[in-house]
Amino acid sequence: MNPELLIPALAVFTVLAHELLWVGAIGILLCSLDDVAVDLLYLWKRPWRRAPLPPRPDQPGNFAILVPAWDEAAVIGQMLRRLLATMRHPCYRVFVGCYPNDPATREAVAAIGDPRLQLVPTGHPGPTTKADCLNALWRAAEAEALQSGRPYKAMVLHDAEDVVHPLSLQLYDRFMPRLAMVQLPVLPLADRRSCWISGHYIDEFAESHAKDMVVRGMLGAAVPSAGVGTAIACRGLRPIAGPAGLPFDADSLTE
């Protein structure tokens, strides 16, 4: 190529790149204004979040912890033993949903032998959606409450690999019935064997649960549930469940 033609072409390219960088920078600035607004609202909200908790109720509420499980034999035993050993609340029961074609998970749950733990067969082979398993757990919890005469204040959703905070039920108890749903921040555990994927996952959850959802709640916007660490008041679930006892959409891939 003729060098005399290359120099003007490079000059034109440099000018275009310079101008496009300005356009790109302005576009990024405009697209980031919503993030800046969320950050400012979060900082303004922080003093309120440090306010005293609501007072403890006169009588502790009764909670049903729902744990749907499919092919979780490797982790569910350890999860349940820790939960039952550390939970600092006097009134709760754990319902674990298992499938007839998953004997390993059923055996891992049955081996614990704790009276606060109830194994709930789904009645049909798995896997199905998590929501479908939760529906079976809801019906079992409602039946147990009717039989014992002790209705549940809320249903608490957890997964088989969760590390449940010992004070979580106490926190739910304080905020209900003033709130129909209470969700705790979800903090994924770091995995040194998979630093790239787990590191990104941790950052994403920290941003969403520690900041974005706080601002959503403050603005009265919809607050999505992570499906774990969430307590939903039974008074809100019963009208949704109806006579069929189906508060969760079994056809949905998320609960």
List the helices and strands and how they pair.
Layout: H1 3-49, E1 63-68, H2 76-86, E2 92-98, H3 103-110, E3 117-121, H4 130-148, E4 154-157, H5 168-175, E5 181-183, H6 195-219, E6 230-233, H7 234-241
Parallel strand pairs: 1-2, 1-4, 2-3
Antiparallel strand pairs: 4-6, 5-6
Helix pairs in contact: 1-6
Q: DSSP strand (E) fraction?
A: 5-15%
Biggest β-sheet description: 6 strands, mixed
Radius of gyration: 25 Å
How much is the average pLDDT? 89
Tell me the distance between the termini.
63 Å
In which order are the strands of the major sheet placed?
3-2-1-4-6-5
Order of helices and strands: HEHEHEHEHEHEH
Percent helix: 40-55%
Going by helix content, strand content and strand pairing, the class is: alpha/beta
What would the principal axes of the Cα set say about the shape? elongated
Residue ranges: pLDDT <50 for 5 or more in a row?
none
Number of separate strands: 6
Q: Quickly count the helices.
A: 7
Describe it.
The chain contains seven helices and six strands; from the N terminus they run αβαβαβαβαβαβα. With 255 residues, the protein is an alpha/beta fold. The chain has a six-stranded mixed sheet, sandwiched between helices.
